[in-house]
């Protein structure tokens, strides 16, 4: 049989868990400086939950004006903060406005009906608002995780990571539904009863799960960021040599299974002269501009890397040399017509292009790369600003 001591112990455990959660998130934000905005918001979500449950437990001990309405508003605020933290981690933008709006509406609705013996209206408002916020956060996280290039990483992350948020939202909906059932128990969580006992046990587990989910999302984001740093050239944000070689080896492995590919080797013309005349900073700007100008000519499946200096290479899967020539010619014309704006003057820029298509006789990708390089060399010999197959 459930006694009042049982439910009070469960409520105290909830305070302990959420309090610990708040402490850990604060440490992550202040000591480890790990996603400080999201971590602080999660600390806030846990702290609001602690305050809300503590006020709930103090009903009848502290003045009603302090424990009822403020406690309920804090409960909704806790879920609003959870939603904001999820957006800060998955979308890198602290979307606090929708949550603040829900808290404000809930606060008004809670104040609309006086707190008396029957607290079902208030329980309904708190549960529905919190469920809406949590499910909203779940949908946001699901979308952000599942979209290609999630978190700017260029690859998909498993959307089901957002599932715990749906679980918590559903539990809150059940709590709201319970208040409309004729058999529904009292919404006062201190009162002993099977439903309250079950609800509090589940809430305990889900509080842990909620914190673990957010911590896991944060870890995932960190891993993706490190992966990105490892494979990107810091100046131009294209693939670095190692990552490009990997992509190339992968494409070459598919050649045996009938999937062709072509390479476009790109090298800026007279880059040393530009560097010497305008300085290294202008050279860097020219390289970044070159990448920005070329990017619209690429498909999502193409891989673009910086091989070194002012030399780049574009890998075009499922493309023959004629297709590569079309792309390269479009790129050449775009580069030629986009001068570098430096010191309020336009400086002409151009690039040379060498092409190669993978052939079944190519032992490995370096043979294809060598042919593209040789073609590029011919393009330079021809006077530059040309495409050479
Ligand atoms: N600003 C800048 N310059 C770089 C970078 N990496 C390499 N360089 C410079 O790029 C220049 C390359 O010069 P070259 O290989 O002679 O090429 P080029 O002057 O373009 O000559 P062609 O390719 O024959 O037209 C050198 O001066 C390098 O110092 C970089 O990241 N930033």
Overall description:
It catalyses: 2 GTP = 3',3'-c-di-GMP + 2 diphosphate. GO terms for molecular function: diguanylate cyclase activity. This is diguanylate cyclase. By secondary structure, the protein is an alpha+beta fold. The protein folds into two domains: 4-230, Rhopdopsin 7-helix transmembrane proteins, CATH 1.20.1070; 241-388, 2-Layer Sandwich (Alpha-Beta Plaits). The chain has helices at 4-30, 36-57, 64-67, 69-90, 97-112, 120-146, 163-178, 194-231, 241-255, 271-278, 280-294, 321-336, 365-381, and strands at residues 261-268, 303-308, 311-317, 340-342, 345-347, 351-357, 387-388. It has a five-stranded mixed β-sheet with strand order 2-3-1-6-7. Strands 4-5 form a two-stranded antiparallel ribbon. Helix 1 runs antiparallel to helix 2 (36-57). Bound molecules: guanosine-5'-triphosphate. The site of guanosine-5'-triphosphate has 17 residues, from strand 1, helix 10 and helix 11.
The CATH topology of the largest domain, please?
Answer: Rhopdopsin 7-helix transmembrane proteins
Backbone structural class? alpha+beta
Overall shape: it is elongated
Total of domains: 2
- The CATH class of the largest domain turns out to be Mainly Alpha
Bound ligands, named by name, code or SMILES: guanosine-5'-triphosphate
Q: What's the helix-strand series?
A: HHHHHHHHHEHHEEHEEEHE
Average pLDDT rating: 90
Write the CATH architecture name of the largest domain: Up-down Bundle
């Amino acid at each position: 049989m459930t006694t009042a001591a049982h439910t009070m112990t469960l409520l105290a455990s909830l305070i302990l868990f959420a309090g610990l959660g708040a402490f850990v998130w604060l440490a992550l934000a202040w000591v480890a400086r790990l996603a400080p905005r999201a971590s602080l918001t999660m600390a806030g979500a846990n702290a609001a939950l602690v305050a809300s449950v503590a006020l709930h437990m103090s009903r009848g001990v502290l003045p009603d004006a302090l424990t009822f309405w403020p406690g309920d508003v804090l409960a909704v605020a806790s879920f609003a903060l959870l939603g904001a933290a999820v957006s800060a981690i998955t979308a890198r933008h602290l979307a606090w406005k929708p949550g603040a709006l829900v808290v404000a509406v809930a606060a008004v609705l809670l104040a609309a009906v006086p707190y008396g013996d029957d607290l079902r209206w208030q329980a309904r408002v708190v549960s529905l608002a919190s469920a809406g916020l949590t499910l909203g956060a779940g949908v946001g996280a699901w979308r952000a995780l599942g979209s290609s290039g999630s978190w700017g990483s260029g690859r998909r992350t498993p959307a089901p990571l957002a599932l715990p948020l749906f679980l918590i939202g559903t539990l809150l909906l059940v709590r709201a539904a319970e208040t409309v059932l004729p058999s529904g128990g009292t919404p006062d969580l201190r009162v002993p009863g099977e439903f309250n006992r079950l609800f509090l046990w589940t809430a305990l587990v889900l509080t842990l799960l909620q914190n673990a989910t957010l911590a896991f999302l944060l870890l995932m984001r960190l891993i993706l960021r490190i992966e990105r740093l490892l494979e990107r050239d810091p100046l131009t944000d294209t693939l670095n040599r190692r990552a490009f070689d990997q992509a190339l080896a992968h494409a070459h492995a598919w050649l045996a299974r009938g999937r062709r590919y072509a390479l476009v080797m790109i090298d800026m013309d007279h880059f040393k002269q530009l560097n010497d005349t305008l300085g290294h900073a202008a050279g860097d700007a020219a390289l970044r501009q070159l990448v920005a100008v070329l990017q619209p000519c690429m498909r999502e499946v193409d891989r673009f890397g910086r091989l070194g200096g002012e030399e780049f290479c574009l890998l075009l899967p499922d493309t023959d040399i004629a297709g590569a020539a079309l792309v390269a010619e479009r790129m050449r014309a775009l580069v030629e017509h986009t001068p570098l704006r430096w010191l309020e003057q336009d400086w002409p820029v151009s690039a040379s292009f060498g092409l190669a298509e993978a052939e079944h006789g190519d032992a490995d990708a370096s043979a294809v790369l060598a042919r593209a390089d040789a073609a590029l060399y011919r393009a330079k010999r021809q006077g530059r600003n040309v495409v050479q197959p």
